[in-house]
C-alpha cells in the first residue's frame, strides 16, 4: 500500500523546512504479503490409528489410551524401584565388613590339639576364647552342682551340649578382666579372676565373688569329632 497523499505532503514540508538532504531519505512502500507457499506438516504418522480420522471421537478410544498410559507408568515405576534397590544394595555392600574382617569373625579349632583336662586359650574377635577338654572328674563335678545354690542357674548340659568340651569367652563378667584357668576354689577345671576375686567352676558358672552372671558362651558348632567352629 502506497503512502497516502497527506503523509507525502507532511514529509515534503519537513524536508523543505529543515533543509534535509533528500538523497539520504528512502521512502518505502508498505504492503503485506501472503505466504501461501508454506505447506502444513503432516503429523498423521505420530497420531494413534484410532484418532487419524477427522471424524473420530476421542471418547471412543479413551479406555485404550488410558491402558497404554498406565502400562508405561507401571513400567517406569518398576524400573525406578529396581534402580533404587540396586543403589541400596551397593550402599549396604559398601558398608559391609571386608573379607579379611569376616575371616576373623570365625575360627576353626582342631580339638585333638587340646590335652584332656586342660584349657587352651585362643584369640577370637579380639577377645580371649577358652576351650577346655574336660575329663570325667570335671564333667561329674559340674553336673552334680544343685541349681539352687547357683547365682546364675544353668544346667551343665545346656552350657556344654558336647560334655567333653567347654567353650566360653575368657572375659570376667564383673569388670572384664581375664580369668586364670585351673585356679580358684572350684576346681578341678575352674577359673579365677585375680582382679576382684571372682570364681567359676568347670562349666564356667559363677560360684563366688562379684561376678553377676556366668562366663559367656559364644555361638559354636562341632563339624566333626575333631573340628570346632566358633562364630
UniProtKB/TrEMBL annotation:
Q: What is its EC number?
A: 7.1.1.8
Q: Could you tell me what reaction this enzyme catalyses?
A: a quinol + 2 Fe(III)-[cytochrome c](out) = a quinone + 2 Fe(II)-[cytochrome c](out) + 2 H(+)(out)
The annotated topology with respect to the bilayer is: Single-pass membrane protein
Family matches, as CDD domains: Rieske_cytochrome_bc1 (cd03470)
Q: Which domain of life does the UniProt lineage start with?
A: Eukaryota
What Gene Ontology molecular function terms does this protein carry? 2 iron, 2 sulfur cluster binding; metal ion binding; quinol-cytochrome-c reductase activity
Group of enzyme by EC: translocase
Q: Cross-referenced InterPro entries, in alphabetical order?
A: bc1_Rieske_TM_sf, Rieske_2Fe-2S, Rieske_2Fe-2S_sf, Rieske_Fe-S_prot, Rieske_Fe-S_prot_C, Rieske_TM, Ubiquinol_cyt_c_Rdtase_Fe-S-su
Q: Where is the Rieske domain?
A: 159-229
Comment on bound cofactor: Binds 1 [2Fe-2S] cluster per subunit.
Q: Where in the cell is it found?
A: Membrane; Mitochondrion inner membrane
Which Pfam family is an annotated match for this chain, by its short name? UCR_TM
Instruction: List cellular component terms (GO).
Output: mitochondrial inner membrane
- State where it is primarily located: membrane
- Supply the alphabetized keyword list: 2Fe-2S, Disulfide bond, Electron transport, Iron, Iron-sulfur, Membrane, Metal-binding, Mitochondrion, Respiratory chain, Transmembrane, Transmembrane helix, Transport
> What are its cofactors?
[2Fe-2S] cluster
Matching Gene3D superfamilies, A to Z? Rieske [2Fe-2S] iron-sulphur domain (2.102.10.10), Ubiquinol cytochrome reductase, transmembrane domain (1.20.5.270)
Query: Any extra detail in the entry?
Result: The Rieske protein is a high potential 2Fe-2S protein.
Family of the protein in this entry: Belongs to the Rieske iron-sulfur protein family.
Protein name stated in the entry: Cytochrome b-c1 complex subunit Rieske, mitochondrial
* Organism, scientific name: Diabrotica virgifera virgifera
User: What is the gene name?
Assistant: LOC114335638
